[in-house]
Amino acid sequence: MMMNALIEEECKRQNMDMTAGDRYKYLWADEDSADYRKPTKVTAALYCDLLFAWTERQLEDPAKFPKNGEYGEAFMSSVKHIFKRLFRVYAHLYYHHFEYVCHIGTARPAVSAPANESLD
Q: Domain 2-113's class?
């Protein structure tokens, strides 16, 4: 999420779709949302906004992330789903914004961010 904050304005300025090249096009879907029950094409900036709000709701859901630490069947699939969607942001960032990230001087620490975050 920190990496997105670094390029958020640049991403909004370019107003591009949520992709990582021609091969990977990411649509937004959220079964709990009236607007996005079906996979929907959105801009990268909107995808990130929706993703971060959705992730927060997932983390606050006691059925998926119980406060008592007794994780149920939904825990691992929820974690995988969250990480899959977060990885899409990194894929978009590096495919479309790598030069900008280098220009603002954050490329080296950012390259290892997904791995570091997943190992902690």
A: mainly alpha
**Mean of pLDDT over the chain:** 82
Please tell me the pTM assigned to this model: 0.77
Backbone angles phi, psi at 71, to 5 degrees: -75, 135
Tokens 């993703």 belong to residue: 51
Residue listed under structure tokens 């709701």 = 57
**pLDDT tens-digit series, residues 13-25:** 778 899 998 999 9
